[in-house]
Every structure is written in structure tokens, then in C-alpha cells.
Amino acid sequence: MSVTMTQKRLAADLLKVGVSRVWINPEELEKVETAITRDEIRRLIHEGVIKAVPERGISKGRRRISHRRRGPGKRKGSRISSKDVWITRIRALRRRLKELRDKRLVKQSVYRRLLLLAKGGTFRSVSHLEEYIKAHRLARKGR
Q: Into how many domains does the chain fold?
């Protein structure tokens, strides 16, 4: 094949595709070799001697494989699962409740009740827990 890159490049430019997607009819190579202007290349495109090869898509098999790898285990970034949010919150609440019990700021019975409330999802945060303790006067007096 002695079709110069110039013809292919001009055809690619006119067809608005890449050079690798330009197809030239092998039976009419002489015609293409003589064409040196944009108008001549445009005429050959119109005649069907030069065509644009269709884009290659992704096969269904490849798509299926790539679709399998989209679960939460593959994702990175700021997506925190509701379970992780819960774990972080409940650990903070339990830690604070233990501090209050150890410093004897709440009775053992109050501690047990608050622990169950925390487990039930009553408190949004540690500050919410402390508001609840203050509102219901569960802290020991004089300490």
C-alpha cells in the first residue's frame, strides 16, 4: 500500500475522526494516490472510496466484568456507610458514659439505663446525651 499519510490525514480531518479510523477501498488505491487536494478527497468520500470505520464499543462481556467491580469495597473517598457512622457514634457515647460512671457523676442504675437508651439510638451525639442528662437531672448533686 503506497497511500501516503497526507491523504489519510486529510480524510480524517474531513470525516472528523482519527487517522486510524479512515478506511480506503483497496481496489481504488490509484484514485486515492492521485488525489492531493481537500476537494478531491471530499469527492472520494462522497463516492464511498474513503469511509470512516465505526467506533469500537465495549463488548458485553467486558462491560459485565467491569460492572461487577463497582461495590462499596472498590469505592474510596467520603462515602461513609451508615454502619460506620453508627459504630463511631456508639463508641463515643459508651466512652463518655464510662467516664461519667467512673467519675461517679451518674449512679450505676442511671448508667445502665443510659447505656440501653444509647444502644436503642436515642442520642445523636455525645452533646445530645449530656443535654438529656441535664434536662432529666440524672447527674449526682454536689459533684
A: 2
